[in-house]
Amino acid sequence: MATNEEENVKILFTNGIINKRQLKNLMYCTFHNYGVVKSSIIADRVKNLTFHYATKSGISLSIEDLRVPQKKRSLIGLTNNEVEATEQNYEVGNITNIERFQKVIDIWNNASNFLKEEVVTYFRESDPFNSLYIMAFSGARGNISQVRQLVGMRGLMADPQGQIIDLPIKSNFREGLTVTEYIISSYGARKGLVDTALRTADSGYLTRRLVDVAQDIIVREEDCYTQDGLLKNELVNETSPNLSVKDRMVGRLLAQPLTQNNNNVVLPINTQLTSNLLDDLHELDIEQLKVRSPLTCNSIRSICRNCYGWHLAYSKLVDLGEAIGIIAAQSIGEPGTQLTMRTFHTGGVFSGDLTQQIRAPFQGTLSYKTAEAANLVRTLHGTRSFLIKENVTLYIKNLKGACSKIKLPEGATLLSNTGQKVYTNQIIAEIKKDANLVLEEDSKTVYTNISGEVFFQNIDIETILDKQGNSVQKNRNPGLIWVLHGKRYSLPRSSELVAKLGQINTSGSIIAKKQILNNYSGIVKFDEASTTNEIKILNFSLILQNANVLLNSNTIEGEKNILEFDNGKKFQIEVQHNNTIQHGETIATLANNSYKTETGGTVTYNLEKKFATKKRKGPGKLFSGTLYWIPEETYRVESSTLLEKLQTKDSTFIAKGKEIIPKTFTKSSGILQVDVAGKEISIKPGELFKVNPAAYNSIERINGFIEPGKQIINNIIAQKLIYIEFVEVNKIEYVLIRPVQKYKVAREKEFFLNQNFFPHAQEQNFKIKTVKKIFLKNWEHIKSSEPVELLNTFLTLDVRNNSSKLQSRFEILQKNKDIYQLQVSQYEILKIDDLITNYSTVHNIKIATRFLVNKNQYVTSSSTLAQLEIFFPIKGTLGAIKNNTANVNEILILQDKDIRPVPHFSKPSELKVKVGELVRTGTQLSTSTKSEYSGQVYSVDKTNVYIRLGRPYLISQGAILEVESGSLVQRLDKLATLIYEKLKTVDIVQGLPKVEEILEARKIKNPCILAPHEGYANVRNSKIEVTNDKGYITAINFTQRDKIRFSNGSYVKLIEPLTDGPISPHEKLETLFNYYYYFEKLAINEACRQSFRELQLFLVNEVQRTYLSQGVQIADKHIEIIVKQMTSKVRIEDSGDTILLPGELLNLYQVEIITKSSLAVNEQAPFYTPLLLGITKASLNSDSFISAASFQETTRVLTEAAIEGKKDWLHGLKENVIIGRLIPAGTGFKYYKDLELQTNKPNTVIQTQTANIKDTVLRSRFNQLLEKQKNMLDF
Question: Which biological process, per GO, is one annotated for this protein (predicted)?
């Protein structure tokens, strides 16, 4: 050890291998002790030295450098045996599927880690100059995880949902992957590529928002003279992340003097806490440390030097003018980008241990004092263990007398009993890693691997309501669901069992019968042409007597048959012979339509004005009444040159039959109008009458209908219904009298069908109706010169008894040689084949059909038409008969292979089991015999115990049951859904959104309920009641899905979570404010400040915890600056006598000034509540509208600012950059203390003692603002 007196720095001589970490520490030490210049010289020399030897060595990497450890093969074999033992344990029913999965995962994870250590040991001892070893362990490139994948094993991988696949990749890249292993590993590789591409943008956007919210935070003053600060136990406690006192306090300044017992000052106020000083304080065990923090700084729109502390790049107090807000934003945002690109470099390999495992250092005997406060619990692997509630010390002694002492903290899990012998590296205890774990509730469905009969063992059922309000059955205690072997078969509905329980049957013997019954009476018909096995019952047969069917002899596709009535009307038949028809379906369409116009025009249903009709009939509706048609010819002209060559001018009268364009003649006389843009010529038929100028003003010039007998103009009386339209020809006003065609549409009569003879027919079921449907809207204008169909006439079927069991069919019958008639029949169709096929294919049952009726036989309703005979598909014993929830009979057939004998060679008195008892593999059947199988004791004789094979499934507490005891199940049917907590995959894909969720203060789904105050908690009548020491009770409603975290009568602290779920920061702030304001009776500003302070520490810890889970450490002060910006606003709830508005957002310090002013003049002060804003909202609610407008919602921000007449004082960096001014930051300005200004007058010296000029300007502006506010209040 040497001492350099000039630098006053201790220099430690070191001799050893320098890797990346040592190099980093060396540079930090030199930089900290010698400054920038000397450090850069040393860095250059180290660089030259390393490059020189790197050039000389010429390291290269070849395939031979990738050496696989020899122990790998034996390790894989041992691990496979352990996994197989776990699988057997699961099959016997000792562990659940989740515990099996977790155990397999941990077995392979431990094997992978052990192999990793073997790789390191092998390189270190056998080949220390291996190129791969040098590269990875010097920190030049790569890491231990990548080396393990190259020469060890890739290990466990995650699927696209983040779930671990329990099939590990046993190969490494040196050996090469199999096809299956390659596909499994592709998930993580692809995820890494996509993640790198997409998440970088998210991280960059987070940085932008952080910069925007904190860009105006600058070190503007030396000291804010605050008396407040953060205590050591606020920064480091059980809820804070896994950071040491040194990590959280180095570089801060003391907020109050540190004294010892005799009140001697050990450290004065504003002492900088260095790393060495904190080490000394830790040795002295001084707990009463109060340090300054940006959270407690009194500076307005800035942080003072003393509250900020060190500039961490230099380990010195920050300079005035430093833009610390920008630094804070970059410090939080940059690791997001870095982590995004670094997360999946290992290919998505899972390596998370849920617990810290304590292993025995050597073989020996374990002993410890029996912990009185210990509970018997199951571990994640399904083994029994003790959860200790106090600190316990373990002792391990071997035969040589060596003793090892291991201390276990409260909450650890003991896996071995006292006095038990343990071997080297045996896991004897586990300590939960609660700090960085993010657990989430998940479920896993248990499916049966066999078909059979279900039995419950030790299962206690309770019925509760789930989140959707459905009734579900849950298991209160751990128990077994047994599935005993057997073949399950479902029988058709309403089948009658012939076989009896316990009957032994051969394949082909009848097991059940089912009768086929009809619902309606009628004549039996068999469809001989059909290939399907079905019975048709003709219930009705009705013939249309007053019409004949004319069959179309032409075979051209699309030609239709004609239905001709006695009155001569002809209809085209739209339905094919023997087709099924529904109620209201169209049978035929009228061939000759009498409602057809000569040209286009306008249609209306009434004589009201065009826009006065409120209800307009839609197209395709039934119609009866009167139609009015105003004709109008419209011609479409494709060429615009033809329009230009028209001989008749626009808006002139044209006679009938005149050629307007080549080969086109008018059909009526009227006024011609040309639409050049639309390339159309229209002719409105009618007569033109000139309007008398004298009576011009008295005429109501509105287009409309004129009824007969009414005057039109100039004593012209209408002889019939007309439509008048005012037009202008050559600038002269005319009235065009247009003809109106009237069509009367009468209601048509119904055509009744003549009924054939049916004894039980009480009334006619069918009618054929004539309906007229209009497909034009009211006042619809049709542009055409061709005829237009106004109405269509249809024949439709009206079925009165429209039963779903009866089927209506359309038939054409031959009356005699040349005459055919239309018949409508109603059938009941009984499809036997569908029933047989369904059950024979799906349920593997043989079914035969026996008909009991003949063709054309008349049957009454509920007659037996046929009988289905159901046969045993396999040889066996009828073991069970059940009627399931769908009212379907199910049977279980036991085969010989389902029952196995176990020889016992024991007396009846020595047998330990009874018939019907459930036994597992290894259970003692007698004093000398163990069971070779799991199942149920079926029978016992003198030599054998017969066991019906079965499979037990262990069901954990809280599982949802999907079956009932005694029910029959098929293979892969659901038995239960296990509910458990799993580790959430916390990589940066979840990490970045988590940070964003906290900083944006998003609403959290299903948050936990927080204790409103301290006291004793109890659950009564679906409410949580918290009673404090004074007897005050607060009741909180909760739902059944909320999981209670406390036991009745236990003491809870303020804002302690009472139910499971994440903590909502908004609810936490509200609960804290209500407590401090209503319970503690603090002043409203103090209640706000105290609530903010506790929430700020919570948010800082949450952000730190998320980053630390990724191995990234950020200084607290950066997060504190951002969090302070989020927690600086309050919302006005009641304005009192001030000019504020309810809902207005203001800074807390502004409201405090207004409150003080109001109370000074005896006015009612405003009431307000604290508000947590996300970084985006905080940016948009900035005092600077220029900064807010440049961030988001530019139009809204600028509009509101203009309406409110806002002023921007240009305090921040961003607004000054936008305007084009110099930014109010930078550490290069001259800084003077005790400034002396000498004037021309002799012996006159003005001396000012101020911290800085900026401080004076700020205080002057602040005083002006106070004065202005006071004047406004006085006014």
Answer: DNA-templated transcription
Q: Return the C-alpha torsion angle 198, 201, 205, 211, nearest 10.
A: 140
Among candidates 80, 65, 256, which has minimal Cα distance to 150?
65
Burial class (CB in 10 A: 0-12, 13-18, 19+), 29: middle
The Cα 640–Cα 634 span in angstroms is: 16
Q: What is the Cα–Cα distance from 1106 to 1123, expressed in whole angstroms? A: 15
Q: Strand locations in 420-545, DSSP E?
A: 421-422, 427-432, 439-447, 452-457, 461-465, 471-475, 479-485, 487-490, 496-497, 504-505, 510-517, 522-526, 534-543
3 state SS of 1105: helix
Residue written as token pair 């940070």: 995
Phi, psi of 202 (to 5 degrees): -60, -45
CB-based burial of residue 707 (10 Å sphere; 0-12 exposed, 13-18 middle, 19+ buried)? exposed
Residue 1147 makes CB contacts below 8 A (sequence gap 6+) with 1128, 1129, 1130, 1183
CA distance 892 to 871: 14
Beta strand 680-685 with 670-675 is antiparallel
User: Which strands make up the sheet holding 1129-1134, listed edge to edge?
Assistant: 1145-1147, 1129-1134, 1167-1171
Residue 280's Cβ-side half-sphere holds a number of Cα atoms within 13 Å equal to 7
As a whole number of angstroms, the distance between CA 1271 and CA 1259 comes to: 18
| 794 touches 588 (CB < 8 A) | yes
Q: Which residue has the tokens 């006003």?
A: 733
State how far the alpha carbon of 1175 is from the alpha carbons of 49, 1122, 1128, 1180, 1188, in Å: 48, 8, 12, 9, 12
> In the prediction, which pLDDT does 688 show?
81
969 phi/psi in degrees, rounded to 5? -130, 150
Q: Which residue from 813, 865, 237 is spatially nearest to 517, judged by alpha carbons?
A: 865
Which amino acid, 218?
A: I
pLDDT in tens, 174-211: 999 999 999 888 877 776 677 676 777 888 889 999 99
The first and second tokens of residue 9, run together, are 């720095």
Task: Provide long-range contacts, Cβ within 8 A and 24+ apart, for 106-109.
Answer: 106/353, 106/380, 106/381, 107/79, 107/82, 107/83, 108/79, 108/83, 108/155, 108/156, 108/166, 108/168, 109/155, 109/156, 109/350, 109/351, 109/353
CB 764, CB 826: distance < 8 Å = no
Give the whole-angstrom CA distance, residue 1052 versus residue 766.
Answer: 77
Q: Residue 1224, Cα to own-chain centre: how many angstroms? A: 45
Q: 188 by DSSP, 3-state: which? A: helix
Spatial distance between the Cα atoms of 29 and 35, rounded to a whole number of angstroms = 10
Tell me the C-alpha distance between 297 and 312, whole Å.
19
Residue 348: CB atoms within 10 Å: 24
Alpha-carbon 845 to chain mean position: 44
Query: Which segments within 912-1061 are labelled E, that is strand?
Result: 918-919, 935-940, 944-955, 960-961, 968-969, 974-983, 1015-1020, 1023-1027, 1033-1037, 1051-1052
Q: What is the pLDDT of residues 1196-1248, one digit of tens each?
A: 999 999 999 999 999 899 999 999 999 888 887 666 655 565 555 444 333 34
Cα–Cα distance between 111 and 155 in angstroms, integer? Answer: 9
What's the token pair of residue 290?
């109060």
Is pTM, for the whole model, over 0.90?
no
Over the range 469-496, which residues count as b (16 or more CB within 10 Å of their CB) and which as e?
eeeebbbeebbbbbbbbbbbbbbbeebe
CA distance 992 to 986: 10
Picking from 149, 136, 148, the residue whose alpha carbon sits closest to that of residue 19 is: 136
- Give SS3 for 33: helix
Across-strand partners of 789? 596
Q: Hey, what amino acid is at 744?
A: K
Q: What is the pLDDT of residue 1114?
A: 92
